[in-house]
């Protein structure tokens, strides 16, 4: 008998006994899962027992090679039916429109779940997953990896020390980096039918959403451009950009969403460029009412008042370069700006000389475990996750309210208590999302 089994502890080769190991069922094996699954299994405390994918020839080679003994399935429902006793936790790394059904099925069976951002494709789906989290008491984590990072701990520390305080405005932006943000590549109608790859189960790829004729603009990656399947740039990068501010400034849900610009607007793909703002009411002491301004696409560069520029030795001023993704937090005193990048990057102050005033307080120290490994350890009863669905779900709902504004191209008034738009029936219907296709209805019943 191998020593790691006989002694019940990790041996010299890194083998971990079954009692200290999480068995994973992975829904989504290619694409982004090429990084997520190795991160979940990196220290030997998790192993893959089953893979599920609708197309194992779409970038899945790395994971298949690493776990050759894992059983393969096309349908996660079949995987959980047949392998449920051998699966402790499920990772969901698929297009946005199929996050919910895979996560809900796993949770209802008592499985812990790790789901890539944004958590869901509709506002109501996030509500249902947050309800399921409470009912089934399973470990959850949304894959906004920066939430478990040195930058996250630093931001939390800066808030607790009052360095980040009284934020009244947040400017957030993302430069264009997806095909629908290129004017030469845009379309305003659904693409025509193509022959699907033999390796692809197109019916399962569509899952609960409307089944359009296959086109390679949907699979394996470009689906994010379409309202039908994705959440655009706001849903993609918004979770990495406004995450810290939303959580540690306790923004909650907004009361107003204002549409400023939706360039080349149509209801098939997301705008060429978007400008919108959200108003969050006062939440308590040092947490005044705050306006969040979002801008993606061309013309994304934020305006920075000259008083926040750096001063060179010769007295000339240099405008800071905040990069292609991030946010600027304005406090009511206007004495400095807090600059956040994206993911786990640490915060800076503008003008940068201001950081000298706070010295050691500005330094970022990393957590003991990363985002994926904190999930695995929590599954074994060791610690907690930093972005459970109770955290990631509400952040996703904020993003999805912005997506509704992008889709309708109009101003919206929202009631955070009732979670309904005021006087706008068509917007409220979008909150619930489209009716699921036949065969998928069971996942959408109240928990």
Automatic annotation (TrEMBL):
Residues in Gfo/Idh/MocA-like oxidoreductase N-terminal domain copies: 23-143
Molecular function (Gene Ontology), one example: nucleotide binding
SUPFAM superfamilies per the UniProt record, alphabetical: Glyceraldehyde-3-phosphate dehydrogenase-like, C-terminal domain, NAD(P)-binding Rossmann-fold domains
Pfam family, one: GFO_IDH_MocA
Chain ranges of the Gfo/Idh/MocA-like oxidoreductase bacterial type C-terminal domain: 193-265
Name the UniProt record assigns to this protein: Gfo/Idh/MocA family oxidoreductase
């Amino acid at each position: 008998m191998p020593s790691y089994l006989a002694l019940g502890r990790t041996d010299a080769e890194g083998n971990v006994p079954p009692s200290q190991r999480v068995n994973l069922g992975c829904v989504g094996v290619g694409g982004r899962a090429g990084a997520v699954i190795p991160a979940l299994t990196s220290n030997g405390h998790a192993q893959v027992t089953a893979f599920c994918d609708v197309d194992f020839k779409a970038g899945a080679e790395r994971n298949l090679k690493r776990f050759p003994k894992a059983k393969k399935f096309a349908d996660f429902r079949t995987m959980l039916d047949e392998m449920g006793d051998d699966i402790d936790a499920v990772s969901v790394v698929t297009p946005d429109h199929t996050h919910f059904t895979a996560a809900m099925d796993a949770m209802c069976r008592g499985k812990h779940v790790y789901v890539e951002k944004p958590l869901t494709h509709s506002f109501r789906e996030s509500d249902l997953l947050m309800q399921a989290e409470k009912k089934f008491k399973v470990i959850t984590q949304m894959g906004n990896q920066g939430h478990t990072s040195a930058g996250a701990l630093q931001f939390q520390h800066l808030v607790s020390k009052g360095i980040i305080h009284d934020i009244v405005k947040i400017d957030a932006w993302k430069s264009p980096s997806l095909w629908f943000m290129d004017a030469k590549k845009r379309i305003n109608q659904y693409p025509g039918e193509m022959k699907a790859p033999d390796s692809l189960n197109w019916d399962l790829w569509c899952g609960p959403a409307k089944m359009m004729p296959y086109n390679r603009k949907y699979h394996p990656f470009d689906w994010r451009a379409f309202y039908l399947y994705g959440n655009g740039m706001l849903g993609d990068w918004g979770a990495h950009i406004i995450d810290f501010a939303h959580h540690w400034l306790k923004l909650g849900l907004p009361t107003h969403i204002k549409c400023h610009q939706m360039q080349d607007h149509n209801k098939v793909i997301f705008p060429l460029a978007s400008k919108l703002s959200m108003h969050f009411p006062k939440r308590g002491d040092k947490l005044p009412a705050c306006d969040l301004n979002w801008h993606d696409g061309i013309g994304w560069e934020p305006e920075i008042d000259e008083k926040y520029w750096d001063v060179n030795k010769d007295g000339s001023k240099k405008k800071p370069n905040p990069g292609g993704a991030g946010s600027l937090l304005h406090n009511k005193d206007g004495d400095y700006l807090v600059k956040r990048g994206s993911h786990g990057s640490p915060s800076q102050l503008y003008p940068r000389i201001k950081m000298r005033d706070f010295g050691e307080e500005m330094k970022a120290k990393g957590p003991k475990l990363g985002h994926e490994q904190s999930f695995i350890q929590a599954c074994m009863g060791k610690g907690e996750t930093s972005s459970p669905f109770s955290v990631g779900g509400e952040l996703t709902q904020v993003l999805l309210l912005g997506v509704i504004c992008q889709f309708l191209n109009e101003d919206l008034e929202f009631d955070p208590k009732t979670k309904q738009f005021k006087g706008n029936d068509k917007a409220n219907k979008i909150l619930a999302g489209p009716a699921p296709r036949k065969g998928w209805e069971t996942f959408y019943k109240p928990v």
